[in-house]
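=== RUN LOG ===
request id: a7f3
mode: sequence -> structure
chains: 1
length: 743
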Amino acid sequence: MDYLKEYRSFINSHYLSEGVRKTVGILLPALIMGHFNLLLIGMTISLGALCVSITDNPGPIHHRVNGFIVCNIIIFLLAIITGFINHIHWLFALLLPLFCFFFSMIGVYGARATSLGIAALLVIILQTLHRYDGLDILYNSLYLLAGGVWYFLLCMVLYSFRPYKLTQQALGDYVRSTADYLRAKASLYIDDVDYNKSNEQLLNTQIEAQHKQDLATELIFKTRNIVKESTVTGRILVMAYLDTTDLFETSMSSHQDYKKLQDYFGKTGILKEYRELILLLADELDEIGIALQGGRRSVYNENIDAIILNEREHLQQLRLSVLDAANVDVFISLKHILDSIDDIATRIRTLHQYTSYDKKLGRKKLQSIDPEDFISHQEMQPKLFFDNLSFRSNIFRHSLRITLAALTAYLIGQLFPIGHSYWILLTVVIILKPGYSLTKKRNYQRLTGTLIGAAIGALFLYFIKDHASILIFLAICMIGAYSFIRTNYLISVTLITLYVLLMFHLLDAKDFKTIFTDRIIDSSIGSILAFVFSYLLSPIWEHERINQFISRVIDDNRKYYQLIASVFTGTPYSKTETRVARKNSLVSLANFSDAFNQMLSEPKSKQKNILQIHQLVVSNHMLTSHIATLAYYADKLQTDYVMDDYAALIILSRSYMERAVQLIEDKEPIAENILTDQSQVRLLDKRINTLMHIRQEELKQGKIESETRRILSQFKSITDQFYFIYKISIDIEKISLKLKDAA
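=== RESULT ===
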């Protein structure tokens, strides 16, 4: 790992920006009011800022604004309600479950609504710290509202100074994740590589890139001043996004039979050179990503062009020395890989130019795009809420779990002499997630992080007594905690524990030992409750709903394939429709893979049909890659390669996919005799065999270059993809049948 590069990326990332913004927004009111001997008021204002900061998720500015406004209204109203009922234990115990259930159920409306629900529950929990009477309830609520409004205004001021910053950071993240995908691809060129492990790594990096792409897509196509206003920066960000997406597809499209290539060329050293060149391209993407994040210009490494020319010369030398009638096909594959590398290098040069934000680039004609093709909208109808009031809904089960666990946590705090008992409630609310695997992971990380943070805090305070140093370290811990909360929860919990201990030490140094002990005890109790209720009221296990992910990914791949394959029979190629189909396919694949990974974290007894499901994950990944390769050829297709001979393979491949979907959905599959009519399938084989025979005769005569070589190189590459897709679709149908029989 290049730690310097990771450091440069981190300091320019939206994660660190978010950490600094939240730390300033939360800490500053307490520091300012403390200076005027109004620390208690300052702490209350800071708590209001803390609650609103929870809804500060990356996204279009109007979504963030709506979240801030709604959150401020909710925390103000809840603070008043909780203030009146806090000292009436039976009433609080009655309303707490209702609040927990409702604010957990609103998670059906998406991630921002989920954050809003957590913020609301946090306000309720924090109000149990103090009891207010009369006008003090209103004053306390107003202070919380002031904190929320302060944080809202801070975010708006920062946005007005740098309206494109978050989009640039997210786009830079997307570019860097594409670089990681290239590195995973490069591992396939290593001799004696474990192909199963490499393909798994390739799939994981592809999914990660897809997640980063989703955020960039939302920020670019849902932000008015990017898609509606003709600013140079906005236009360049759109072009950079589209070119990165095309580059990502190109990198997916170079999938070959790497074992066969190693058998023929492993000792020549050319595959090792290809690997080093791919890694060099990945480094270039890293530089572009970091440059986009930091708002500076990156420079293209001109040596890459010279290296590619050398590789073409090396390939030509190999062709002159070892090309014969028996290895024509592997030379075709080798040339295709080099052409893909060249294409990626060209796109990288363009991306480097975008980092300059040159006005000339901004005047470049942007292809007509409809933002609606790239984004999805969250349904906000009340019907969605009520439709999920069923045990068949995972969010409903999750809401019940939180409700019962929170009520139990509150009763334990009331019945037993536990200090800072609100931490039990807080732990339960934070740890419990809709999925079992995520709850289990969070539970472990919460407990481990608390123990590590407490130990570090004790050591730090043992050696450091100066309040200024403690305050500085506290601020650093806060920045780190909020910076890592989306990427490394264990580190985040460790730092949160640290800054909580330091904060209470500054407030009351004599009480540190109590805080230290209570934090560990309360977190442990909360973790145990979360663990117990995740079993007592189990979520919907992944095997119960994974079929919907399987059928969706197969169907989206079928639509993607149909769109691309039709180009080879005469339908005009549409770049926009291809992008939309590719996006749908990749999103479905990412969702399916995520569901499979969650299943692996569940109890063994719940991992039903795991072998077949894993085979479907791998097969669909391969299918998507080969369709992407076909799309690469479709984009530059010459009329010589448009013919009806592809039709039989297209129909049969699509039929196998349709049959697989119907088997998974437990519907009556299409008649099998339709699938067995394969009389036209070998037409392409005949054409290839004829060309191969002609080419072999040419090679025997010493003809290295010829028109037949050019036609065969392109036509065989296209035909190979059709046959790969055909064979994979058969495999998918067979695995789907096994899955249905095992049900």
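=== NOTES ===
The chain is about 75% helix and 0% strand.
The mean pLDDT is 83.
=== END ===
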